[in-house]
Design a protein that fits this description.
Shape: globular
Strand content: 5-15%
Strand order of the largest sheet: 1-2
Order of helices and strands: HEHEHHHHHHHH
Number of helices: 10
Distance between the termini: 53 Å
Structural class: mainly alpha
Radius of gyration: 25 Å
CATH class: Mainly Alpha
CATH architecture: Up-down Bundle
Largest sheet: 2 strands, antiparallel
């Protein structure tokens, strides 16, 4: 089993992705300056708070309407829905920021950190960049409630933290002697598969953030005379597919890792995962260790590629109409 060519090695891919993320970040900041000088170059969305105002029943000619909004558990009060402006969100700066964030992390990963650390800390970068991307997708879909946007940001952030927790759990269970957790029912039943708990929880938090966006956009389209532009459909559905692919990559990586570990001698020393392929050819690393190394490197390459594609598509799907309208 030979390693992939050097051009496709994860440090090299990180360096290439960092270069193009940096280039796009600089380009977007430049475009923002140009778009600000154009009449239709804005991409700022008003964000609101939807609150209830309490009123007490007094003499009124519209009593039946007030009764419909009666406050719970009290017949003397009713509530009136009110919209307050909470601020604004400019998706152009969101785009520039997540490009800059990815560029900084991938430069760090390419030249400073070892591959295993990069693989783990990638979810830290995703926890911020993916959450920021979620805000751009949500406002494009029509979400304007500041509390909903906050919760979507947090749910995507938690999703990524659960991703790194799943990876940690897989490693920890590799080293633990089964006798150490024989009396713990969940760990005893799952064993090396214990990482499924945070992994499945990550799917729950991700879908909890994204499904309301899809539902709101679907309902909005259903009740609108004019349909949303085609690029908005692509942003919402294609980005959801790309977000899902990150989960499938981890599912693949940790499933293969578990099958390799379950079929070989436990535990496999983690330092062997960092060895060059020559060590395997010289017989200094076990076959299972090399298989595991290939699986994790393939997963890392997939993460780098997905991250670049998702950010680039989202950015230019949003910016292209602004550029076309301002030209």
């Amino acid at each position: 089993m030979k390693p992939c060519c050097y051009v496709a090695s994860t440090p090299r891919l990180n360096a290439i992705a960092a270069f193009f993320h940096t280039l796009q970040s600089v380009l977007v900041f430049g475009l923002i300056g140009w778009l600000n000088s154009r009449p239709y170059g804005s991409a700022t969305f008003r964000v609101d708070k939807f609150i209830n105002i309490w009123h007490k029943f007094e003499n009124t000619t519209d009593m039946q309407s007030m009764i419909k909004n009666r406050a719970a558990m009290n017949s003397d009060f009713y509530v009136e829905a009110k919209v307050l402006e909470a601020g604004s969100l400019d998706v152009r700066y969101i785009i520039a920021f997540f490009f800059a964030l990815s560029a900084g992390f991938q430069t760090w990963g390419a030249y400073v950190l070892n591959p295993r650390t990069v693989f783990r800390l990638r979810f830290i970068e995703f926890s911020f960049s993916a959450s920021i991307m979620m805000l751009a997708i949500a406002v494009e879909a029509g979400v304007r409630d500041v509390y909903s946007l906050e919760m979507m940001f947090i749910l995507i952030w938690v999703t990524m933290i659960l991703g790194i927790l799943a990876d940690f759990t897989s490693d920890i269970m590799t080293y633990l002697d089964p006798r150490a957790y024989s009396e713990e029912p969940v760990l005893a039943s799952l064993g090396l598969w214990a990482w499924l708990v945070p992994h499945v929880a990550g799917w729950v938090t991700c879908c909890s953030a994204y499904i309301p966006v899809i539902d709101m956009f679907t309902e909005s389209s259903k009740h609108s005379e004019a349909k949303a532009p085609g690029f908005v459909h692509v942003i919402i559905y294609l980005q959801f597919a790309l977000f899902s692919c990150f989960g499938f990559v981890q599912l693949y990586a940790l499933t293969m890792r578990t099958l390799i570990l379950a079929g070989g001698n436990r535990p496999i020393p983690m330092e062997l995962l960092q060895e060059e392929s020559q060590l395997f050819l010289e017989g200094q690393a076990g076959y299972a260790s090399m298989r595991l190394k290939v699986v994790m490197e393939n997963a890392e390459r997939a993460y780098i590629t997905l991250s670049f594609v998702a950010k680039t598509l989202l950015a230019w799907l949003i910016l292209s109409p602004l550029i076309a309208n301002s030209a």
